[in-house]
Design a protein that fits this description.
The chain is mainly α. It is about 60% helix and about 5% strand. The strands form two sheets. The protein has a three-stranded antiparallel sheet with strand order 1-4-5. The radius of gyration is 31 Å and the shape is elongated.
């Protein structure tokens, strides 16, 4: 079983409502007798009952009842994992409204669909008193009075049926699937730390929200198909997911959530995140970036004629000597002065790497980060190792774990050797710990 524990998705609001809803569900579980049989009859009227008319109160209360401890535990763990994402982007008030809204909408649809179902199913057929059975019974000599008496007895018994035996549903599972679908819309590429149980052993691993969502929704679809989409658990989960997906899309399209260009639509188009490029290698302009881009264009100094190649070569030799001597600050100043006259001057790969790392060791973080980013852009074939160093610089120099995580996400971990891969995993854990305030 795969259980989500936490996420690296950007969280702008502390999960007050998520914690509050978990405590509320636990309190209701304790109050209702923890799913014990002796409390079923007492609380049955608050579950979502089928074939008993429309009861709007049950559309709310049924979401806070659970059939047992495992049922409650599973739902609350998933509520925590995906509540972090949804409430983190919406804030507590909107989150509570969305949470209850998904639950009410799903329960209303479910109870309406089952409005004309019989509380005990097709009892007449089970007892051999459906139309076909009655016809055969009469052919065998049964009188109309005998048939009517039998039917009256069944109908009378059904009217007095114990409410605790009326079929229906309860639990927050459909809402949880709605949260899962909303997370899929808003943060498909962000990762979730999951706990996996394999028998008596367990371990944690990282998985993207998209992969996790497709796993659980795909599993629900498969089970629903096998069950011919009867209103069983899998179908109810899919109803919640469909409602949550729709709500997530509407809130995103209305600009009520900030997905920082990591939403499902951007991911599907291939133009997502801060490194999005078109087919010509140009950065993709987005509405939120226009003002900043325009300012940079206005403030950009006029280009000056660059020096001849011999002057550039001489300057590079001077910078090389300063780096060899360990005078990284002066070497950086020399590079700055060179570029005032020659904007296209780019150091060779080895020299640029040594200068960027030397500045980092000297705690000149801003200059170091600028040169590391320049190295990544100029020498993309060897950029992954530099991204590891850049993520360290973001955390140590700028105390910015979010930027560090974004940098690490652009690394192809499969291309790293064992030592680099271990360093990569360690940096991810450090950044997440800083982000969570640990």
């Amino acid at each position: 079983m795969i259980i989500p524990l936490t996420t690296d998705a950007p969280v702008y609001h502390f999960p007050f409502a998520t914690i509050g809803l978990i405590l509320t569900n636990v309190f209701c579980f304790l109050l209702s007798g923890m799913g014990s049989d002796e409390h079923v009859a007492r609380w049955a009227e608050f579950s979502l009952q089928h074939g008993q008319g429309l009861h709007p109160l049950q559309w709310i209360t049924s979401n806070f009842l659970h059939a047992g401890f495992i049922h409650l535990l599973g739902n609350m763990v998933f509520l925590w994992g995906f509540g972090l994402v949804v409430e983190g982007k919406l804030g507590w008030l909107k989150f509570v409204a969305v949470y209850l809204g998904i639950g009410v909408a799903q329960c209303a649809v479910e109870q309406t669909i089952m409005l004309w179902s019989h509380p005990l199913g097709d009892v007449h057929q089970v007892l051999g008193l459906d139309d076909e059975s009655i016809r055969k019974w009469r052919e065998e000599g049964a009188t109309d009075a005998e048939v009517e008496a039998a039917l009256d007895k069944i109908n009378s018994a059904l009217q007095n049926v114990d409410r605790q035996h009326i079929p229906g549903s309860l639990g927050a599972s459909s809402i949880i699937y709605g949260m899962l679908a909303m997370s899929l819309v808003w943060a498909p590429k962000n990762e979730v730390t999951c706990l996996f149980f394999a028998g008596i052993r367990s371990f944690t691993f990282e998985i993207t929200i998209m992969t996790l969502a497709l796993w659980y929704i795909g599993e629900a679809i498969l089970i629903a198909v096998i069950q011919q989409f009867s209103l069983a658990t899998a179908t109810l989960h899919l109803m919640g997911a469909a409602i949550g997906f729709g709500v997530g899309v509407v809130l995103f399209k209305r600009g009520l959530v900030d997905c920082e260009d990591w939403d499902l639509f951007s991911v599907m188009s291939g133009h997502y995140g801060p490194y999005a490029r078109d087919s010509y290698g140009n950065r993709i302009d987005r509405p939120g970036d226009k003002k900043e881009i325009e300012l940079k264009e206005v403030e950009k100094p006029k280009k000056k004629a660059g020096p001849n190649l011999s002057v550039r070569k001489k300057a590079f030799q001077s910078i090389q000597q300063l780096v060899d001597d360990g005078d990284f600050s002066t070497a950086n100043d020399e590079l700055y002065n060179l570029r005032l006259k020659d904007e296209k001057a780019v150091l060779d790969e080895d020299l640029l790497e040594r200068l960027a790392i030397g500045l980092a060791k000297s705690n000149q973080w801003d200059d170091s980060i600028a040169l590391m980013n320049e190295f990544i852009e100029a020498y993309p074939e060897n950029a992954d190792v530099m991204r590891l160093k850049l993520s360290q610089a973001y955390m140590k120099g700028r105390d910015d774990p979010r930027e560090a995580l974004q940098t690490l996400k652009s690394i192809d971990a499969s291309s790293l050797n064992d030592d680099r891969r271990a360093q990569y995993q360690k940096l991810i854990k450090q950044a997440k710990a800083m982000l969570n305030g640990d």
